[in-house]
Amino acid sequence: METKEIQNDCLEVLRAFDLYAKNNNLKYYMAGGTLLGAVRHQGFIPWDDDVDLMMPRKDYEFLIHHFHNDRYEISSCETDGTYHTPFARVWDKQTRIEWKTVCEKEIGVFIDVFPMDGFPDGNIMTYVHLWHLKFYRALVNSSIREKFLPHEKYLWCKRIMKKVFRRSGNYYSQKLNRVAQKYDYDKCSYVGVKTTSLHLFREKNSKEIFQKVIYLPFEDMELPSPVGYDVYLKHLYGNYRVLPPEEQRHSEHEFVIYKIDRSTRLIVGGDGGGG
Predict the structure, then answer these.
(1) What residue segments make up the domains of the chain, in order of their start?
(2) Is the pTM of this model over 0.85?
(3) Residue-wise pLDDT tens digits, 182-204
(4) Which of 1, 118, 151, 219 could, after both became Cys, cross-link 43 (CB 3.0–4.6 A)?
C-alpha cells in the first residue's frame, strides 16, 4: 500500500476524532505538518503519513479520559502504563504498526494529539522551563529506543542516558507532562505545545493567534486552524511556502504497517524528513 492509502486511513481516524470533538464541544486545531499541508497543499504534504493536532490542556484531558469508539482507540501515558509517548494517539484497531527503532506499544494507523499549555512571559524563564522539558524529553527518547542510528546527534549522550536512567518511557512521559503544566493555559498570555522535541523553542506563541478559529480545506474535510496560522507556521518553518529539497521529501517515521491479520505489509516509513 502506498503513502496515499495510509493517508486515507489517517483521514478515517481523523473523521472519527473530529465528530467526537464536535459532539463534546472540544476545541482543537491542526498543528505542525498537518496545518502546513492544509495551507500549502489543501491536504496532506504529499510525502507525509500522519496527522498532527493540538488541543488546550483541559480539552485534551477530557479526550484522553472519555474517548470511546468501536473501531478507534486512544492511547496516552496518563491512561495506559504500556504506552510511552508523552502525547496521545488515536489509532485504528484494524491495522498494526511494527516500530523499527523504538520499544513502543503496538498500535495501528494513528493521528497525533498534542496538549497545549501555557508559557511564562519572560525569555529567561521560558528558556529555563524549556530546558527542563528538554531534559525529560531526552529521557523519554533514550528509554524507548531499541537501537540508535549512527548518524544521530549526541549519540554518545543518548547511550549513556539509556544506561544511567532506567525508568520506563511512560514514567518520564508523565513527568514531562507534569512539568509542561506548570504554567496554566488559561492564565498565560503565551501558549503552545511542549511535549514534542521537534520545535520546542519555536512553539511559544501569543494566545491571541488561537483566540479565533477558522476552517481550512484539508483533503475532503474542513478542519479548524488558529486564525494566526501564518504567524504559527513562520515560527516553526520560516518561509513555509517553499518546498524543501528533494532529498528531504520523505516520511519522518520508522515503522512497518500491517493489516490486523499481519498478512499484508502496507508501508515502510522513512528515517527523517522535512516539511
Answers:
(1) 3-268
(2) yes
(3) 999 999 999 999 998 778 789 99
(4) 219
